């Protein structure tokens, strides 16, 4: 669509009652990012209350009408997804504004390929819109969904603000009481000093810019066509953006606002990471668990138990059930789950591992669930049968659940979709690592409605992390791993060997799982960095990485922690059996080199002694050494011959295992441990060599 164009959702697809809105962008540096937000507005263009403003500290509506699903990596950058159940939106909400904002002085002109996509509940894209004129803006309204009679329409807005999220939010009626905000911050600080409480206040939005003017222009006067995969939508679907009676105008550019930051006061229950002092007589006593696992012996027992445990908790804890199904197109409603259901299929009934049913307004959404544990692969023929059964019975989805991690352009299991069927069935994949990640986010950081739900999630997490549950996530580098490593060792691996591509795909899955685990622990998104441009071929990118593996014997990746300025680089050298994690720290301009070096070493007071520190100079690397050796002799890091000091590279090096990684040993465990140790030992204590704006409190 062009900026300002409008289209009816019902004209684009038969099932537009629930949509998934995606905002995406790329960044050449890998460090660019933005936060999405959603505002529900009444007929006057204002929020009904502060609870109509959804952002990272208030990610979901109680009625399920809006849920921020978080960021997901794509082959061309990041994508932030939002589930919008239009059938659940209150009748007095006239518009749903979808926006994004930046922080810490960043501008949208620093990002590339700004785009918005609206898809139906099956994931089929309905309409897209790209922003091509971003510049100094710190917040952008990408688009909005709005009512016209009994139908919903989409408008491509593309309006920018220089006042950041605070200016945008206050323009729509989100009011901040600064006195109350300060009091709430003080209460939160007191609670933290006392050791934490079960109920924690949501954090403020911080680091928002101030400004006086917005930019980007109005949608008035713009018109366009909606283009899809098959061509343009007919002209009677797309309306003119200007001059239509009853259409709500795009809000005016906000005047200067004194509001510091919008926030939510909603409180939820979280659990501390470390349990209270045990009353057991000695360490051999084990606490009673709701979901015991030591007796599980066979793969079948693990699959049955894991499916039943997860589906039962999903049905009882709405926050988890909604979070795991919203991205699959499920509406917000009453959820029931079932296991070992018998469904007719020719002469022999089939028994999927589970069934999820959600009821809303008298309509049912149903998904079949096929589960694998302990690294067992999904079987294409089995999943195909469930896809056929779902299509015949009018079910909406088939969800596969296994230790594997899905990649763009590399499906976990290949199935045939019969295009002649009128009823579409979508196939989705969920990894056990993603389930554990979402569970940990809820109970450690975001909170749930009550203490009983928090306890249930804690028991689920204990089950998933138990060594005998079989739900540990991706844990096998695949059949190509051993021959590729052997080929690298004896220098017989040739460029073009297809097994190298398989290893690259396994490496990408491993890095995504590392990000899930680290993000769950930190309560912040951790994503692999993709520097490819939008539209690039994932297969071609993996083939190029496989060629580098054959030539150099190394696997490389980059990952970024939400809110962090620096990218963590991970390199696994298969020739030396070592994994290196590193981060580059720029040196401030205009400071004395020795002063800069001393300040860096003070900042690294709690870092591991075996941390490698290398000076970066113009044109290459400079002096280097371990932290243990450099602490008494900081001058050893100074560049020789008067070279200009540009920064430092901080690295930790760890030996890797050689096994495929079953039971989380060997190479996979080594990489996971290396990233976790590096982040907690280095970047977590590295504030920067010069002051910078904090993003979140």
Radius of gyration: 26 Å
Strand percentage, roughly? Answer: 25-35%
Largest sheet: 8 strands, antiparallel
Q: Which shape, going by the Cα principal axes?
A: globular
Q: Give me the number of helical elements.
A: 13
The tally of strands reads 29
Can you characterise this structure?
- By secondary structure, the chain is of the alpha+beta class.
- It has 13 helices and 29 strands.
- Helix 3 packs across helix 4, helix 3 (299-316) packs antiparallel against helix 7 (451-465) and helix 6 (432-446) packs antiparallel against helix 7.
- The chain is globular.
- It starts with 5 loop residues before the first strand and ends in a 16-residue tail after the last helix.
- Residues 176-265, 660-664 and 690-697 have low confidence and may be disordered.
How would you sum up this structure in a few lines?
By secondary structure, the protein is of the alpha+beta class. 25% of the residues lie in helices and 26% in strands.
Descriptive key words:
single chain; 697 residues; 13 helices; 25% helix
Topology of helices and strands:
Blueprint (H helix, E strand, L loop, with lengths): L5 E3 L9 E9 L8 E7 L11 E2 L11 E9 L2 E9 L9 E7 L10 E9 L4 E7 L7 E10 L2 E11 L2 H8 L6 H16 L5 E3 L12 E2 L11 E2 L2 E2 L5 E2 L27 E3 L29 H18 L1 H9 L7 E6 L14 E7 L2 E9 L8 H14 L3 E6 L23 E6 H15 L4 H15 L15 H9 L8 H25 L3 E3 L9 H15 L1 E8 L5 E7 L4 E9 L6 H11 L8 E6 L2 E7 H4 L14 E11 L10 H16 L16
Parallel strand pairs: 20-21, 21-22
Antiparallel strand pairs: 1-11, 1-16, 2-6, 2-8, 3-4, 3-7, 5-6, 7-10, 8-9, 10-11, 11-13, 12-17, 14-15, 18-19, 19-20, 23-24, 24-25, 25-26, 26-29, 27-28, 27-29
Helix pairs in contact: 3-4, 3-7, 4-6, 6-7, 6-9, 9-10, 9-13
């Amino acid at each position: 669509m062009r900026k300002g164009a409008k289209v009816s959702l019902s004209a684009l697809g038969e099932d537009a009652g629930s949509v998934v809105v995606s905002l995406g962008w790329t960044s050449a540096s890998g460090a660019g990012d933005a936060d999405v937000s959603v505002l529900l507005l009444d007929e006057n263009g204002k929020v009904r209350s502060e609870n109509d403003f959804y952002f990272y500290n208030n990610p979901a509506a109680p009625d399920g009408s809006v849920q921020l699903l978080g960021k997901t990596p794509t082959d061309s950058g990041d994508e932030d997804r939002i589930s919008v159940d239009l059938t659940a939106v209150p009748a007095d909400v006239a518009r749903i504004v979808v926006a994004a904002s930046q922080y810490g002085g960043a501008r949208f002109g620093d990002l590339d390929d700004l785009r918005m996509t609206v898809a139906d509940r099956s994931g089929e894209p309905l309409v897209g819109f790209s922003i091509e004129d971003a510049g100094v803006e710190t917040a952008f309204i990408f688009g909005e969904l709005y009512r016209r009679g009994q139908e919903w329409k989409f408008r491509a807005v593309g309006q920018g603000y220089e006042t950041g999220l605070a200016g945008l939010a206050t323009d729509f009626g989100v009011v901040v009481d600064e006195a109350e905000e300060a009091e709430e911050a003080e209460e939160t600080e007191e609670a933290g000093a006392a050791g934490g409480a079960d109920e924690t206040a949501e954090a403020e939005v911080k680091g928002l810019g101030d400004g006086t003017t917005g930019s980007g222009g109005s949608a008035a006067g713009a018109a366009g066509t909606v283009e899809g995969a098959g061509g343009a939508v007919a002209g009677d679907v797309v309306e003119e953006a200007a001059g239509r009676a009853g259409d709500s105008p795009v809000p005016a550019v906000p005047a200067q606002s004194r509001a510091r930051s919008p926030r939510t006061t909603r409180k939820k229950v979280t659990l501390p990471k470390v349990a209270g002092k045990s009353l057991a007589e000695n360490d051999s006593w084990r606490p009673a668990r709701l979901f015991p696992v030591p007796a599980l012996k066979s793969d079948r027992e693990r699959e049955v138990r894991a499916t039943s445990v997860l589906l039962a908790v999903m049905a009882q804890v709405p926050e988890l059930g909604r979070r795991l199904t919203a991205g699959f197109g499920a509406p917000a409603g009453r959820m029931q789950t079932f296991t070992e259901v018998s469904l007719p299929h020719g002469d022999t009934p089939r028994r999927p591992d589970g069934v999820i049913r959600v009821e809303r307004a008298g309509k049912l959404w149903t998904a079949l669930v096929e589960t694998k544990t302990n690294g067992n692969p999904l079987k294409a023929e089995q999943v195909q049968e469930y896809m056929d059964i779902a299509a015949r019975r009018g079910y909406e989805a088939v969800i596969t659940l296994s230790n594997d991690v899905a990649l763009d352009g590399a499906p976990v299991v290949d199935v045939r979709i019969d295009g002649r069927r009128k009823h579409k069935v979508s196939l989705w994949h969920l990894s056990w690592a993603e389930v554990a990640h979402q569970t940990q986010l809820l109970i450690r950081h975001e909170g749930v409605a009550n203490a009983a739900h928090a306890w249930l999630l804690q028991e689920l997490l204990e089950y998933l992390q138990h060594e005998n549950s079989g739900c540990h996530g991706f844990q096998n580098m695949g059949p190509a791993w051993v021959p590729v490593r052997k080929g690298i060792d004896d220098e017989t691996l040739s460029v073009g060997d297809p097994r190298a591509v398989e290893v690259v795909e396994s490496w990408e899955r491993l890095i995504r799982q590392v990000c899930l685990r680290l993000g769950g622990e930190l309560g912040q998104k951790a994503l692999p960095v993709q520097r490819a441009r939008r539209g690039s071929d994932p297969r071609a990118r993996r083939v190029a990485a496989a060629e580098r593996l054959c030539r150099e014997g190394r696997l490389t990746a980059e990952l970024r922690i939400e809110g962090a300025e620096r990218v963590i680089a991970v390199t696994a050298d298969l020739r030396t059996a070592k994994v290196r994690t590193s981060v580059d720290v720029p040196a401030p301009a205009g400071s004395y080199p020795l002063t800069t070096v001393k300040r860096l070493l003070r900042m690294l007071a709690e870092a591991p002694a075996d941390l490698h520190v290398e000076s970066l100079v113009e044109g290459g690397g400079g002096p280097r050494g371990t932290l243990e050796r450099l602490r008494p002799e900081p001058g050893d890091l100074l560049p020789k011959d008067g070279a200009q000091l540009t920064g430092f590279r901080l690295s930790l090096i760890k030996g890797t295992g050689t096994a495929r990684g079953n039971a989380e040993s060997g190479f996979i465990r080594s990489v996971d441990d290396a990233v976790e140790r590096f982040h907690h030992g280095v970047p977590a204590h590295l504030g920067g060599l010069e002051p910078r704006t904090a993003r979140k409190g």
